[in-house]
Amino acid sequence: xxxxxxxxxxxxxxxxxxxxxxxxxxxxxxxxxxxxxxxxxxxxxxxxxxxxxxxxxxxxxxxxxxxxxxxxxxxxxxxxxxxxxxxxxxxxxxxxxxxxxxxxxxxxxxxxxxxxxxxxxxxxxxxxxxxxxxxxxxxxxxxxxxxxxxxxxxxxxxxxxxxxxxxxxxxxxxxxxxxxxxxxxxxxxxxxxxxxxxxxxxxxxxxxxxxxxxxxxxxxxxxxxxxxxxxxxxxxxxxxxxxxxxxxxxxxxxxxxxxxxxxxxxxxxxxxxxxxxxxxxxxxxxxxxxxxxxxxxxxxxxxxxxxxxxxxxxxxxxxxxxxxxxxxxxxxxxxxxxxxxxxxxxxxxxxxxxxxxxxxxxxxxxxxxxxxxxxxxxxxxxxxxxxxxxx
Length: 391
What we know:
Shape: globular
Helix content: 10-25%
Strand content: 35-45%
Largest sheet: 5 strands, mixed
């Protein structure tokens, strides 16, 4: 207990940078926000909206996009096809790395980041971190032997990673350098905790979870939905930036899937977590998700499993945005900033899913230019990037 208290004190005394505003911890009242509805239009945030088709060779299919990063004049996209580089207009340039066990090859991609200082792409394997330049050349790798490794973020040449928070993982956060020297760490408070599960290791996961995000030149760590604090990472310094007061919607420890999968299946749908955070100068966009679906089919989510929250930095108020961000620019579906890179917000959608709604005439005010663009798409069209630039 003394160790945990000491860590919390250190975290609160640490500063993200010298900007006074950056040291202020934002507190979000989740109970109040989830019950405060407001309609928000895209035109309030942006003047432009683009449905960007990712054009690839026939043997490369972009589906289930997990990350999008803007690097110089390129889009770096992580999907089931691996890591691919595209031009500003969505034209395929090259793949970065490939699956295998040889030099520069990976077994399983867990995440990626871009080191803008050295113009290097970091690809996270289950066993190592691989470094490539934008020309696709493999540069080097760092071998990983510990079990804390899940995703990666880089700031000031310091590599940060975070665990799933499972009892067999010794650390919650971990920082090291390119030589694999340990620089800083935070112990996992659940390490070696006795749990009810006796038949294996369980954990809940959504493909929309995003551990790291960037804003104002800083790297931030949200980590897993059971973590109610966003940390600002600057070099080896970590400090609280946002605290989510979940109130009655906080999943009790003994209902976590890793603690008791049976109780998780019974009760977790009554509780919420925040798997993704996007931030700019004016707003913080919070994707809220039930800790377990209310759907009868456990492999399908229900529309009521999701909430889209916006924290207004000017007023300090947080509210639920009805129907995501309503498209009053092109008259198409509502969108949500799933990724934020540079000045761009990005959402994604499979063309097949969007096509069904277009055929059903769910968008009667669809712009003529967008209708023409959609007419050129086929069943073989890759997942689309929905790109809008902030005002």
